[in-house]
């Protein structure tokens, strides 16, 4: 339930208007949130006991961490575009607050927006932080603009929401020493789909969350198109699955979570019928696995 509320709150907030106060739209010398707690000095993360809590803790109150957000400076044209996309919608703050409200965190985890020099996003095990590169948002905007989206900016925000949850998949695997079988990058994609497709209190999946998963899938189609459809040894040996494979996985899971509501991905030819036939069972197994893995760590 906690992750469902997290997804609903963040997607709704992330698609807001540009009518925020002018002070929030300008770069600031001060970070949005000050990181009050550092990870433990020895290992960078706590030992987790058999009850799913830090060693020596009695209950949920002994998880003191919050996720904090900050935006670093941007100087390149591409980074400035990406920073505006993230900051003008207060996206990192909303994502951080939602994670704090939903997950038991052993210490403060920074969520950082920064100029990286290339489109990227990553969980840093050493720093125990998530970084969303401004160039990633700018690249997404370019992809959806070229795709002819009526509102490419909203599509870009959706893809960054899903990107955050993908990186959160790496985070929870690391923080809680969760078991992973297969490629961790695929598992992180699963976490993004799981969070966004969990039904809300009314038993229904939020349409905005569904749109975020679909836009995330379309982004990988855009990356494949950028590469001209060619596949080389570097792509085959990469820790990430091929772009189109990731697209089909996400579309399968969004269809499997609600075959009637998301039949469009099959009808429009995006998801092949032979894959779609097994997607409901595939998503059920995915959802059940994440329920078990994350259960001890949800507030």
UniProtKB/TrEMBL annotation:
Top-rank taxon, per record: Bacteria
- Report residue spans for region: Disordered: 16-68
Skewed-composition ranges (Low complexity): 16-31
Question: Pfam families of this UniProt entry?
Answer: DUF4344 (PF14247)
Name the record gives this protein: Uncharacterized protein
């Amino acid at each position: 339930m906690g992750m469902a509320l997290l997804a609903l709150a963040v997607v709704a907030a992330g698609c807001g208007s540009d009518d925020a106060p002018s002070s929030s739209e300008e770069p600031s010398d001060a970070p949005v949130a000050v990181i009050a707690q550092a990870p433990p000095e020895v290992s960078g993360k706590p030992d987790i006991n058999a009850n799913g809590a830090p060693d020596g803790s009695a209950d949920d109150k002994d998880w003191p961490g919050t996720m904090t957000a900050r935006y670093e400076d941007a100087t390149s044209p591409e980074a400035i575009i990406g920073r505006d996309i993230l900051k003008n919608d207060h996206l990192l703050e909303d994502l951080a607050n939602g994670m704090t409200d939903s997950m038991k965190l052993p210490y403060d985890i920074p969520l950082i927006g920064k100029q990286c020099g290339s489109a990227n996003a990553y969980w840093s095990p050493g720093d125990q932080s998530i970084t969303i590169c401004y160039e990633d948002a700018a690249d997404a905007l370019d992809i959806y603009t070229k795709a002819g989206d009526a509102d490419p900016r909203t599509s870009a925000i959706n893809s960054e929401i899903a990107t955050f949850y993908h990186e959160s998949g790496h985070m929870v695997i690391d923080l809680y020493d969760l078991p992973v079988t297969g490629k961790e990058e695929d598992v992180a994609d699963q976490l993004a789909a799981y969070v966004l497709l969990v039904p809300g209190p009314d038993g229904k999946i939020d349409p905005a969350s569904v749109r975020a998963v679909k836009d995330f899938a379309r982004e990988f189609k855009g990356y494949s198109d950028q590469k001209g459809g060619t596949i080389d040894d570097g792509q085959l040996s990469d820790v990430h699955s091929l772009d189109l494979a990731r697209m089909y996985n996400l579309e399968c899971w969004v269809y499997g979570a609600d075959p009637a509501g998301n039949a469009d991905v099959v009808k429009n030819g995006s998801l092949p019928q032979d894959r779609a036939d097994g997607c409901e069972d595939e998503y059920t197994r995915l959802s059940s696995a994440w329920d078990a893995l994350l259960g001890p760590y949800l507030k």
